[in-house]
Amino acid sequence: MSRVLIAGESWVTQSTHIKGVDHFTTSSYVVGVEPLRKALRSRGHEVTHLPAHLVPAEFPADPSEYDVVVLSDIGANSIQLAPEVFEQARPGADRLANLRDWVSNGGGLLMVGGYLSFTGFEGKAAFRNTVLHEALPVELLPEDDRVELPAGANATVTEASHPALGGVSGEWPPLLGYNRVRPRPETTVLATLNDDPLVAVAGYGQGRSAVFTSDCSPHWAPASFCEDWDGYARVFGGLVEWLAG
């Protein structure tokens, strides 16, 4: 059993309704982590979810109580800029540097794709400009890195025997998009999408890091992928177990 922290995978949506001269707003809170949390728990892992709105205040300065940290659809600013730094101009912990060092000392890091992962929508995820970029098994693009696949595309598995894929076999269900990245020379690419890395792994110091460049939940991962496919738990379970060593 591994202790896993998942940061991100939640969001607030606000809508404005305009009816003639009158208007009003409604808000909703959505949690997208459930497919991943369910899959990891089914394999015996202890999962802690830190929703996106709590990340700035509560992301740990020292992640050593966990074996694997998963960053999913949460930008670099939310981790780097704690309230005392952003709102009060007081020095605080550099949590991305601490996370990088924790990986180098034996931790396991997984970044999952989304609009606020890697470089992200309009470059707003911004991990390329941080020290955590060093720990990832891929090079990030300097521009918006999203590739939308509205008709869907199937992954191509390139290293089926690697333990990080959890023994999954057969064709993967289609995915609807991903973040484009470039593998580093020492990286092992386990699966591709449109000839770009989908699953890639590498060592970093004494630790390990991995990426899954598409989504772990809608919208890039439709229900056929994250709910109906028995390979979903194998892939993400295999990644976490490989990262935990």
From TrEMBL:
Keywords: Glutamine amidotransferase
Alphabetical list of Pfam families matching this protein: GATase1_like (PF07090)
RNA-binding keyword on record: no
Taxonomy, superkingdom: Bacteria
InterPro entries from the UniProt entry: Class_I_gatase-like, GATase1-like
Presence of the UniProt keyword Cytoplasm in the record: no
Protein name as catalogued: Glutamine amidotransferase
